[in-house]
């Protein structure tokens, strides 16, 4: 939709070329963000054509709305799960438990190798995860080199028996005070 100014001498800026915002250097940006502790999750979806599970490790997850319940996550443009996500598709955010760092490491790779931690049927839920959110994708928005995925949360479960896996200063950690890496 094109906007027209009330006064023809006012410019709307639509015709003007825009400079790409550059910001801070990527290495400086990554170093600064490594100082922010974050939970670790694996986002997974099932390929509707072949039934295979596709997943990737994610550290950027946030709540958007409690009513209706919505989350947002950020996926790099090359994330393995991204080609299988589209508006309306179903996916699961598995919030990993402190003892599941091996799963996080497996799904940071573009071609994960090893035993599948997912349920054999149904939604791709990781057994023993600290929590999981079953979602349907409402929108996928390109932002820089990433894609923001907004999901409507249709089901959520929490296992209160253990703690979450944390990523801080480029290492997996726990909230346990006896953890020497904490």
If you had to describe this structure to a student in words, what would you say it looks like?
By secondary structure, the protein is mainly beta. It has one domain: Electron Transport, Fmn-binding Protein, Chain A (Pnp Oxidase, Chain A, Roll), CATH 2.30.110. Helix content is 8%, strand content 36%. The chain has helices at 26-33, 101-106; strands at residues 38-39, 41-46, 53-58, 61-66, 69-76, 90-95, 131-143, 146-158, 166-168, 171-173. The chain is globular, with a radius of gyration of 19 Å.
Condensed summary:
The protein is mainly beta and 182 residues long.
Provide the fold topology.
Elements (H helix, E strand, L loop, with lengths): L25 H8 L4 E2 L1 E6 L6 E6 L2 E6 L2 E8 L13 E6 L5 H6 L24 E13 L2 E13 L7 E3 L2 E3 L9
Antiparallel strand pairs: 1-9, 2-3, 2-6, 4-5, 5-8, 6-7, 7-8, 9-10
Percent helix range: under 10%
What low-confidence regions span 5 or more consecutive residues with pLDDT below 50? Answer: none
Give the overall shape, derived from the CA principal axes: globular
CATH class call: Mainly Beta
Query: Architecture, CATH level 2?
Result: Roll
User: Which radius of gyration do the C-alpha atoms yield?
Assistant: 19 Å
- Work out the count of structural domains: 1
Run of helices and strands = HEEEEEEHEEEE
Alpha-carbon distance between the two ends: 52 Å
Strand order of the largest sheet: 3-2-6-7-8-5-4
CATH H-level superfamily title: Electron Transport, Fmn-binding Protein, Chain A
Tally of alpha and pi helices:
2
Kindly list the characteristics that best describe this protein.
182 residues, mainly beta, Pnp Oxidase, Chain A, 7-stranded antiparallel sheet, 3-stranded antiparallel sheet, globular
């Amino acid at each position: 939709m094109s906007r027209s100014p009330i006064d023809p001498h006012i410019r709307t800026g639509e015709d003007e070329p825009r400079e790409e915002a550059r910001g801070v250097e990527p290495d400086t940006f990554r170093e600064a963000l490594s100082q922010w502790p974050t939970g670790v999750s694996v986002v997974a979806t099932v390929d509707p054509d072949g039934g295979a599970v596709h997943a990737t490790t994610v550290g950027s997850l946030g709540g958007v709305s409690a009513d209706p319940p919505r989350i947002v996550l950020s996926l790099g443009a090359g994330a393995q799960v991204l080609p299988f996500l589209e508006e309306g598709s179903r996916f699961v955010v598995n919030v990993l438990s402190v003892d599941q760092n091996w799963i996080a490491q497996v799904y940071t790779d573009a071609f994960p190798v090893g035993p599948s931690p997912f349920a054999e049927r149904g939604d791709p839920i990781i057994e023993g995860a600290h929590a999981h959110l079953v979602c349907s994708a409402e929108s996928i928005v390109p932002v820089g080199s990433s894609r923001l995925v907004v999901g409507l949360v249709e089901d959520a479960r929490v296992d209160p028996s253990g703690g979450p896996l944390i990523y801080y200063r480029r290492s997996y950690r726990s909230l346990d005070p006896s953890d020497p890496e904490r």
